[in-house]
User: Fold these one by one.
Assistant:
Number 1:
Amino acid sequence: MAFVVLRHRDILDIKKLEVYRQNGGFEAFQNAVKNLKPDGVTQVVKDSGLRGRGGAGFPTGMKWSFIDSKNWPHYVVANADESEPGTFKDREIMESNPFQFLEGVALACYAVGANSAYIYLRGEFWQLAGFLDEKINELNDAGLLGAKLFNTNYSLNIYTHLGAGAYICGEETALLESLEGKRGQPRVRPPFPPAVGLYNKPTIVNNVETLTNVPLIIQNGAAWYKSLGTPDSAGVKVFSLSGRVRKPGNYELPFGATFRQLIYEHGGGVLDGRPVKAIMPAGASSSLILVDEKALDTPMDYASVRTLGSDLGSASIIVIDDTVSIDWVIQKTIHFFKHESCGKCTPCREGTYWMMNIAERAHNGRKDPADVELLHAVARQMQGMCLCALGEFATMSVVTGIDRFPSDFKNPVNLQEKIV
Amino acid sequence: MSLLQKYPAEVKQILSKYPADHKQSAVMPLLYLAQRENGYITGSAMQDIAETLDMTQTEVAAVVGFYTLYLDKKEGKYRMQVCTDLPCALRGADKFLQDLCGNLGIKVGETTSDGLVTIEAVMCLAACDKAPMFQIQSRDGLEYHEDMTVDKTMELVAALAKSGREVA
Ligand SMILES: Cc1cc2nc3c(=O)[nH]c(=O)nc-3n(C[C@H](O)[C@H](O)[C@H](O)COP(=O)(O)O)c2cc1C
Ligand code: SF4
Ligand code: FES
């Protein structure tokens, strides 16, 4: 099957504008601006079943239709913060298939009546931001961005904006605060960005991969896209596969491919031929999946992963084998969330702090069963109390790790002296 | 001399990205510019940026304090930031960091005696399939080094010491 998002794997030079255009690039945008109503573009995206790839899986067309048309101007923001541990797909997309991403941004802007878009990149993507600036300049020079496009009244500019190292800025309202020149701390929602977003104006925030799907959807139609994937989760997904596999990397597969296919057919199986013990399907924010044959044969789509007591999220599949102790795994994830908590609300700030203290002393020798219970209790107490989802994410691996792998907290395995 | 006086074209270009009544959005790019100037962000640079953007200096300092890539004091010329987050750690990143520190004779967070390299452990850098990996932050930007070994890294350190170049 031909690639939809990672199209550079079929067409090597697609990062060159002339090659992108030879392969139909910017026809969808040009056609939309000249011949389609903005609502028409949104309708096709709605009909395609495209869901947001940033983690929440929210239907993209529906989000676009929520834009408040009584308040102007409108903005589109591409979320290129990509900081979830285990996620490295947006970077490959932007580095290797930049124009398809930018055309997706342009189509989103036209659909919601925005004349300016910002690409918010994590600060570490400094080189990538310079690269995208070059690509944006090429589009301006080619008359594909800028004022009065294709002899219409529609004008569009796209700008890059670099963050400076803060996972929380991937959360859409913290991102908007950051883009406004403030500390990146989440806003209370509602109102949601399509009503009140950047500079208090209606704003659509979409993930890079979400937007990169859009040009081919407009070009090939909603029915084509829907024919890929499953009824619940239309289309293709880029799975970032990492951890204890032979061939980690990004794999674009239709939704509904199984964990087994991803790990064994594409990822070359587990290192040293060991069995898979646990899977974290949504990076560090995952509920841990206890892996058996049935779990391996579960289709990777939003609904099916839920039947395993987890969530597909951003589909950053971290594979853990039987040489690794789950008590060490959650110590790592707690450390991450403690470091990244923005400190705005008490349950998250204090909860991650205490979880880290307890987890460290539990892992470093002091094997007191009461500590494990305490850790579990702290995590449970945070749930439902936090202002944004980061606080919630911080508890997922802790609660499910202790519930589903209890023996790892009594007798940690630690077979892999060299890694844990 | 202020940033605006020194780099008029760059400051203008940065300001042109944002609506004229929302200049504050330019604070992050201007801080990067200031950091490039001195290797870290000085009090007077913050004052300067605050004036340019009609912010208070406290507001600018709050931004500097919030984000990990801004420095408010001098560090080694090259900050070598090794990712030891879970996916990389599952592929040996903790061991890599430990061995690297051993070779350089410093601990995590410390700087080599010649002031060349500061070693840090950082969170996921979106390169988890290429562990062990690190980024090098210097005055002029950031550079990724992926699929690394301790030997390759020591060669890189030697080359940096010799060339004295800033990371591109
Ligand atoms: C703590 C936190 C971190 C997030 N990080 C990202 C991120 O790095 N990239 C991203 O696209 N979405 C991230 N999100 C989700 C965004 O808030 C938002 O839902 C998403 O960008 C919407 O785009 P989509 O509808 O296309 O998925 C994060 C959410 C939270 C709570
Ligand atoms: S839950 Fe955590 S990250 Fe989110 S607002 Fe509260 S303190 Fe900040
Ligand atoms: S965990 Fe190291 S780059 Fe992602």
Number 2:
Amino acid sequence: MSTLSDRPRNSVVGEAVPHESAALHVTGRALYTDDLVSRTRDVLHAFPVQAPHAHALVTRLDVTPAHAVPGVVRVLTADDVPGVNDAGVKHDEPLFPSEVMFYGHAVCWVLAESLEAARLGASAVVVDYEPLPSLVTVTDAIAVASFQGAQPHLERGDVEAGLDRSTHVFSGDFEFAGQEHFYLETHAALALVDENEQIFVQSRTQHPSETQEIVAHVLGLASHEVTVQCLRMGGGFGGKEMQPHGFAAIAALGATLTGRPVRLRLTRNHDMTMTGKRHGFHATWRVGFDGDGRLQALDATLTADGGWSLDLSEPVLARALCHIDNAYWIPDVRVNGRIARTHKTSQTAFRGFGGPQGMLVIEDVLGRCAPLLGIAAADLRRRNFYSAGQATPYGQPVRHPERVVTAWDQVLTTSDFAARTAEVTAFNLAHEDSKRGLAITPVKFGISFNLTAFNQAGALVHVYKDGSVLINHGGTEMGQGLHTKMLQVAATTLGVPLPTVRLAPTRTDKVPNTSATAASSGADLNGGAVKNACDQIIERLRTVAGGRLGINPADVRFEGGQVHGVGDPSACIPWAELVRQAYFQRVQLWAAGYYRTEGLHWDSSLMQGEPFKYFSYGVAATEVEVDGFTGAYRTRRVDIVHDVGESLSPLVDIGQIEGGFVQGAGWLTLEDLRWDTGDGPTRGRLATQAASTYKLPSFSEMPEVFHVSLLQDAHEDGVVYGSKAVGEPPLMLAFSVREALRQAAAAFGPPGTSVDLASPATPEAVYWALEGARAAGTKAEHRHLVEGSHLVEGGHGIVPAQPGPDAHALHPISERWANGEAADAGAAGAVDDESTGPGEHVGAHR
Amino acid sequence: MTSQLDRPAPTEGSTGGLIVNGAPCTLLGIRANATALDWLRDRGLTGAKEGCAEGECGACAVLVARPDGDDRTRWTAINACLVPAASLDGQEIVTAEGLGSPTALHPTQYEMAVRGGSQCGYCTPGFVCSMAAEYYRADRVAAEIAPDEQERDHEHGPNGFDLHALSGNLCRCTGYRPIRDAAYALGHPDPADPLAERLTRPAPPPQRTHVAAPDGEFNRPATLPEALALLAEHPDAVLVAGSTDWGVEVNIRGTRAAHALAIDRLPELRTVEVDDTVIELGAALSLSEIERLLAGRVPLLAALFPQFASRLIRNGATLGGNLGTGSPIGDAPPALLALEASVVLASVAGDREVPLADYFTGYRQSVRHPGELIRAIRIPLPLAGITAFHKIAKRRFDDISSVAIAYAVDVTDGVVTRARIGLGGVAATPLRAIATEAALEGRPWDRATVQEAAAVLRREGTPLDDHRASAAYRSAMLGTSLLKLYAQPADPGRQEADA
Ligand SMILES: Cc1cc2nc3c(=O)[nH]c(=O)nc-3n(C[C@H](O)[C@H](O)[C@H](O)COP(=O)(O)OP(=O)(O)OC[C@H]3O[C@@H](n4cnc5c(N)ncnc54)[C@H](O)[C@@H]3O)c2cc1C
Ligand code: FES
Ligand code: FES
């Protein structure tokens, strides 16, 4: 067992403590970026001028009328940028565009004494546009081969041979929607110029180091001239990983040009129309099963709707490809990926980061094929689980595959699955107008950034003379409880009570070169770094204590704020006293911690390697009831068993599981991003751009009965205190809701009906699905080819589109740097932009 | 939002100021169109958050002291993002900061904190305020609980907590379960709790207010004649009642009122009168108040209210405002059409009564003249025997209808003697389903009649495709609605759950 994962007795980690800011949250005292405005003097307010075209050239920009509006101080345009006019890491996101790439694209920003004046100023700016043709849907883009970035290809074995071996071959396609993050707190930044021209930006960012880099490159400064701080975020979910940089840069630019603090806060409509979302995907596939329903081959092409710029689309797509197997062993696999370029917001990271999209494809395939194979969906899924010794299509051995089986069996038992399946059947026989469905689905999700270089973190731990401890680490807090866990880790390692440790806000001048708080890795990485710093301090204090207690330093124990010899708690030194003594002995009482995840390697051009430290597992069973008149439904009961290793903080982890599940259910059933696809003047406009039209799950979507348990005996070796990451994987437990809806809809038809269900499965979508099932009942002989369905059985299937000859593989420059191919990478970097070093490119891949 | 630097010319007029968290505050210097949320946040009370600025998320919820009869107070949660700050002149407000502090948590705050009710914390102050309003509700009594978990009433806690109190608050992080558990774990207030004690005294009366700022004027007259006189003087004035529509206009569409006239506290618009032939509902009563005052007396409205927006919105929203907005997807018109209600319009020239069926003339157009306001809604008695409100929407709590169908049907000796059906969302105005009514009346109330009439209903109106629903779905929902009414007649709980 590694020392990293070894957990001491009575440790503070593992205690179910409330969120470290809970008392501040509930009393309204917790400060978020925009709450700082009323505490700052002489603030200017920024407001965007948004283009009313999906695609257009800006032919004239006249800002003079804005200056006539009382209170307007300045209008920021491309001419004001001293550095690089770009907000991304791929150099394809001009901060002030001359070509409008999506409806609502901000062409310039007005600064004024009040938000009201800035708004009026923005409406006074005159912009002339020359509209250009636009691509709004992913199918539009596929039709004209509008793709961007790499086209990764993942292959194992020989799909043709696999299909040859198969008794049943099906082909189909499936297009499914993305998702708006809808963090309750919209994007905001507050920038000011501090002493000695230091730029100080308060930003709600998941990636302060990258915000810092982009602010610096826009301003033409070095990184050490810019400090970014993030107190906390009102939700992030990936939406604040790449998206905050440009807004921070606008605020910082305004502050340098006016010498006054500049506040930029997006309204909800701004946020929804200007920032990226979860990628919707289009998938075509063919799949082969043997006579027992065992998967033999899968051939699929996934097209992610990337929007107008690359952003994080490449790594999102890579993760989608790496998760198309979910928990299932598929001997022969070929998956191609591409990124559509459309005139929409630039789609980005969102909890799961492509993983959910990849997994949705295989879950949809299984859900549609199970009735055609005559196998219960639960049995079909269970039959195809990985077993020991098998590896993923990208060559990573699947460690602990038995955990998904354990979780599955536990859910079957605790949810009383067999008895309730019988109840559901009985209910459905007795009710003509409403039907129930009960479905169970697994999750296997790889933890670590796909890009190896990102798997490092730093921390700074100070012990003051009075024994109090202040920690700082590179991760950001967005509600996921990272800070709570870090406090617990520090208290555990130092052997002090939790209140002895305090945490300071995340700042780039404390811990540099941090990775985004993303990929669920926050606690693994920063926990490793915090622990490392604390370990260093403990090692030094051990010597002091050993001397004082007259024992071998190795026998010193730190527990509950007391320091004593192993097996002899009677001779104790209080922690604070030891610390004070150490100070007088001139022992260093602070430490910088560092952590890198060991054992990872990944070649993204081949899509092979071991990119993940481990897999997280979970299983959910969901029962729904569908109204046959309307398609409306209720979630009656959910049972979940999820693997978080040995939990660092059970209250936090359960919160992540429940919250992730409901958010996933929102994506799959309710949240409906609708762009205007017509040819009118508002083509490309997001029609659901407000909370009134884009509906998030509310109390009415909460499962009526909701049981969540953590998988027991799940210690994870080699991870901080035996824990596992939890942020993203539970989102995908929500597949069980979708599959339950599918089964309920199918129950309106004859046995064996295969139901195509749109995603999101809104009441309307469910209504059409159940109408389809009813129709299947009237022409049963055709049910293998339901009218309007894209699912076809037989032959060798319909071959999904294969990448064109000019497609280039994913091969990030950063990976080449890591592998010492510096010369090559430098050259490639120069092509992109001579002024940028490799560091900025690293940000583009994860 | 204004900052300290938004130095408007000094505001003229008369405001008495208000009490926030027990401390008196002045409203001097405010913009006439400033929202209460912006005003609070500018003062450094940043606990209330802006999540949407359109009444959907509840992050801005605060408590106001509203009358509960003549001599008691009810802590009422409202959306601070929607109401003008000036409309709170003379009132008492409590925000999350005022409920408790980190070292002295309020019971709602304690339960939320220890049960994991906050993750990012951004929605939390608003949830705490909505929860506190329900915590202090005087008629909240412990309920019986079914032993079988699955068969429980999932919308009420063992402590009588009505989950609908939180229906206007969104949380993106928690998935709600811990928030529900926090709500259901609450005890009852200690009578010595100052906020509980406050309930036993009258609420602050409305305050005559006049704000004249560079961005416009805000007036709160004290009486109806005063209001009508002002309206006659400024026929273009915006009437502001609960401001749940007007606030959205201000925040989302950037509309500003040169003259705003607050009518929500006019005593003449706040009564319920019942006699043998008619029920008259004051146009400025909030829907929550009507719900309480009618106490189920009009089953169709009782079926409607829980499906109308959220508790936070219903605490402000009025019938006058719903008809005043005249949205074709408003929920009150279909119900009131089915009830054959009429509208009492008041002006300096006196009252006139218009049947609601004749009230709407086009998309958001009506027969109401400038200078008139809606004083009351009259519902004739007796009421029909079979009533139902079918609201088709994406989300069960707090969503706008894509289609709404309201029924008031009388069946005598198995024959339909009278059928009134109101429709929303299928045309530019709310409609009566006249052809369907004809297909029912005089026919036996049986499956054959219902199926025939359902086919007629399916073709009523001219539904459109939009982001809420396709035209085909809207028509399909018209087509299935009557079948549903027939299959699941008097089971309002069920209809509510399924709609
Ligand atoms: C989040 C949210 C959810 C909502 N959900 C629903 C819903 O489910 N169903 C639904 O139908 N509506 C819904 N609405 C709309 C709104 O709440 C209702 O229309 C409400 O009844 C408006 O009442 P109000 O008092 O707030 O009107 P206000 O906003 O004060 O006024 C609205 C309009 O009516 C005029 N007006 C107000 N009172 C009178 C009067 N007495 N005489 C003449 N004109 C008057 C005003 O001048 C203004 O133009 C929702 C709104 C929000 C913000
Ligand atoms: S800010 Fe969302 S309801 Fe007020
Ligand atoms: S705790 Fe984050 S939105 Fe509720």
